[in-house]
Amino acid sequence: MMKMETGHLARSLAGRDKGRLSVILAADDEYVSLADGRNHTVEKPKRKKKKHVQLQYLKGEELQLKRKQMEAVTDEEIREFLELHQQGGKINVEGRRN
Length: 98
Description:
Elements: E1 8-12, E2 21-27, E3 31-35, E4 46-49, E5 53-59, H1 61-68, H2 75-86
Antiparallel strand pairs: 1-2, 1-5, 2-3, 3-4
């Protein structure tokens, strides 16, 4: 099982946001903080138990790099990344679809 880390994509399995994709902004032993750039922003992420979240195999590489470098990730960047992933496009390190 993959470890849930900052920048990973996750799909909600329970709650009002069931089935929606989000980006993990923070993770601890039991909870993750999720943002989708619309309903749950970077300033006010959704806190959810790990058991209610399914990790997706595609990483938000650009978002993860920015978080590791302590740069601010914007809601617009999260929305663009999620839209590209939902369209089925492959995303390179620059965050652009191939």
